[in-house]
């Protein structure tokens, strides 16, 4: 009884009071196997339209209709009882009347189209109108993901679209009044910003299914806690913080850091990205390290901090003086991230 009450949003006390009894009678008398009513024809038409098809439209609720109702309930996370109760009917009407289907207009249709284009279901003109080409591309996506192919961007499909996009948050260290390391004519805040912007642009231009966000894109100061907060609020899948090193003029090479209380996924991503960079750059490998850095500690997703060379080591400073080299570092880091997340090349 408590399960029944919880499912239907009633007070969960296990007592069959008048409210519970009324709801029980309502569900018991809802359209289900063996019943006839004019409402059943309408239910069948809607089930056929939203992808649970092949139902003969009559006023009788037979075995096949019950089978389709159960499939509908399972697909949308409802109680699989084959009864078209209030919750089932509400969900059916929501899907059937979705604004995200052929012939309808909605402001958020533009966003759906952008995401489908981003995922490689491309060529969709971004407007608020849901036309036949958009429907065809959405059905292609649904088919590829093993979803019900109905051409409607229902909640299941929208979640699948969202989950198919990898959200990368790129953090350029320091900025504004905080220059970071300074040596031989270079400021860390400027070098890392160039690397970050090149990285983000290369990811967006060369790979499907990636969405890039930044802590900063200009010379401004962002508090450490706010950098992590921005990434968390974005729901990012990965955080990469870009820095340069400085020591005594003799130290050189690249090192990367993850938090000391890291997940296996975080360590795996670090290995892929770190090894890719070392292989491409041909510099001293200073190791895959662990630290309690603020941005690594406060981010909710796997995170890495990369120290790209030493500003006070003359040979590495000379490389970092070159804008083309900084752009290249951004490019190869984008490639490393794409490798870590199995992103598809455009």
UniProtKB/TrEMBL annotation:
Q: Which key words tag this protein in UniProt?
A: Hydrolase
Q: Where is the MurNAc-LAA domain?
A: 228-338
Q: Name one GO biological process term.
A: peptidoglycan catabolic process
Coiled coil spans: none
One Pfam family linked to the record: PG_binding_1
Query: What SUPFAM superfamilies has UniProt attached to this entry?
Result: PGBD-like, Zn-dependent exopeptidases
List the InterPro entries: MurNAc-LAA_cat, N-acetylmuramoyl_amidase_3, Peptidoglycan-bd-like, PGBD-like_sf, PGBDSf
What SMART domains does UniProt report for this protein, alphabetically? Ami_3 (SM00646)
| Molecular function GO labels | N-acetylmuramoyl-L-alanine amidase activity
Q: What's an example GO cellular component term for this entry?
A: outer membrane-bounded periplasmic space
Q: Which Gene3D superfamilies match?
A: PGBD-like superfamily/PGBD, Zn-dependent exopeptidases
- List, alphabetically, the PANTHER family matched: N-ACETYLMURAMOYL-L-ALANINE AMIDASE (PTHR30404), N-ACETYLMURAMOYL-L-ALANINE AMIDASE AMIC (PTHR30404:SF0)
Descriptive protein name:
N-acetylmuramoyl-L-alanine amidase
């Amino acid at each position: 009884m408590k399960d029944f009450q919880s499912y239907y949003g009633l007070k969960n006390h296990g007592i069959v009071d008048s409210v519970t009894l009324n709801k029980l009678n309502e569900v018991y008398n809802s359209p289900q196997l063996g019943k006839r009513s004019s409402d059943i024809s309408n239910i069948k038409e809607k089930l056929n339209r939203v992808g649970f098809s092949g139902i003969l439209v009559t006023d009788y609720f037979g075995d096949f209709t019950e089978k389709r109702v159960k499939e509908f309930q399972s697909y949308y996370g409802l109680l699989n009882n084959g009864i078209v109760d209030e919750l089932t009917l509400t969900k059916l009407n929501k899907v059937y009347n979705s604004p995200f289907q052929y012939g309808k207009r909605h402001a958020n249709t533009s966003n759906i189209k952008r995401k489908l284009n981003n995922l490689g279901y491309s060529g969709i003109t971004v407007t608020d109108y849901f036309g036949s080409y958009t429907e065809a591309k959405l059905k292609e996506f649904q088919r590829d993901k093993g979803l019900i192919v109905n051409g409607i961007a229902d909640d299941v499909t929208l979640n699948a679209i969202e989950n198919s996009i990898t959200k990368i948050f790129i953090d350029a260290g320091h900025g504004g009044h905080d220059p970071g390391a300074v040596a031989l004519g270079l400021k860390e805040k400027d070098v890392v910003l160039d690397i970050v912007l090149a990285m983000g642009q290369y990811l967006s231009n060369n790979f499907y299914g990636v969405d890039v966000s930044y802590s900063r894109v200009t010379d401004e100061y962002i508090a450490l806690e706010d950098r992590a907060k921005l990434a968390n609020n974005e729901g990012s899948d990965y955080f990469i913080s870009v820095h340069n090193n400085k020591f005594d003029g003799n130290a050189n090479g690249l090192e990367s850091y993850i938090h000391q209380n890291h997940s296996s996924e975080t360590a795996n991503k670090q290995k892929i990205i770190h090894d890719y960079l070392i292989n491409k750059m041909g510099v001293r490998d200073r190791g895959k390290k662990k630290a309690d850095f603020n941005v690594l500690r406060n981010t909710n997703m796997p995170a890495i901090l990369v120290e790209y060379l030493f500003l006070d080591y003359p040979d590495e400073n000379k490389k970092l003086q070159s804008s083309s080299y900084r752009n290249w570092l951004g490019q190869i880091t984008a490639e490393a991230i794409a490798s870590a997340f199995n992103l598809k090349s455009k």
